[in-house]
Amino acid sequence: MNLFEVADSDRKSQHRNMTEVLEACRIQDLSSTTHLKASRIRSLLNAYRLSKAYEPDSKVAYVVEQFPNELVYALGMIPWNIESMAILLAQYGSADSFINLTQQNHVSRDICSFLRGSFGVIMANCYPNPDIVLANDQPCDCLSKLANVASKYYRSPFFSITTPTELNDDTLDYLAEQQRILVKDMAAALDMEFHESEIDRVVRQSNEAREYYCKTADLLRDHRLPGVSRELLEIFSMNAFGLPENVQLCKTLYQEALEMSNKPDSKKSGKRVLWAGQAPDGSHEIMRYMEEEVEVIFWAPLWSSNIMKLDPDDPYRSIARRAIEYHWHMERLQANLAEVCDSYGIDGIVISNAWGCRNMLALSPMMREVCGEKKIKYLTINVDFIDRNNYAFNHVKNRIDAFLEILM
Fold this sequence. Notes:
The chain is α/β, with parallel strands linked by helices. It contains 17 helices and eight strands.
């Protein structure tokens, strides 16, 4: 198999390939995992976006995690997160065939399973043919490499921006200028017109959604709101800030959270555990098992980068600031973790090391240091939510039991 040339770039064929996989997979009943109206809205929004991407006339941009999708929406394109799509398939039990395909083609098992799963879907030609592929070296260099390989595989234009690690005036100017050039290069490559007013419109919509998002996160500080932290995580992972539909989604979640917080029994009680690292879906056996005993709060939605709004007077620079904040910078994340533990009343932390993820391995010592300073219990587990060959519940159950015992 030639890894750098797709056999059939017709989106109807690709949609048929994906449909065949979904029909053969072990569809799970996820209806019991949430009662939130916002979750149903999100599912419908995702379903619409995914189906729309397979239409022949749609403009599709492959993007990596935490790419500034406002730039994509400003050009009227559909961002297709190549990693998140594979994670979504894994949640429905349909990643096995893609993992097997990578093994048949001798892709190293030492690579992060999230990337191998994504690569497998690309090799199976189940994703819609991209008009353009975009990367910004976040959250890891391997994901940027996968995007580059995808651009060769589909023979699509590839553009990449480099995000500095340090945050200062020079790095902000440098990254903001890259983004200005990128939007113009994207428009030229696709023979499209670009108007700066579109950036202004998208930024306003992004900020409006973010306002509801932040108010919802604030309610979590003092109230037990079942399903809300999970939904914040899903909204963050969807990365749809800039879409008008996302405004309604975040507004609905806030209204539901506010209604729950006004109930007499909503005051925070019991033990709270912060989940750090890649998280399985809400129906996963690990989550069901832990949530019988403790309330799980997810760390990623509460990062400083997810709480900040964009500056409508200087959109490129503020998007650049958020992008730099997204970097897994040890000192910035340590400060954020300490603040989250204090303000959300965290009693314990689960450090989830996903198979092959070097970032989490590097961050683990910092998180254990924060736990020591705060006198917080922690548990490190090694899991794989994509490749079932690397995971069995019994391997982690005893450790979870011991952690919960000392926590309670």
